[in-house]
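Researcher: Please predict.
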Amino acid sequence: MYDDEAGGNADADGPAVRADPTRPGRSLVIGTLKEGGLDVYGLDGRRLQHIAAPPAPGNAD
């Protein structure tokens, strides 16, 4: 993700790692994307899921 016009202030930070010591293939890295939501990655770097951020309160479209 990039912090640019198309990315919508979505640069990644605040990672969390869920490590499965008996089945490493099930381990996950979760990163917040500021205003862009959350991304979930496998340890191979492949994005497994994206959860979009809800609109901010008071910003009705």
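Model: The chain has a mean pLDDT of 81.
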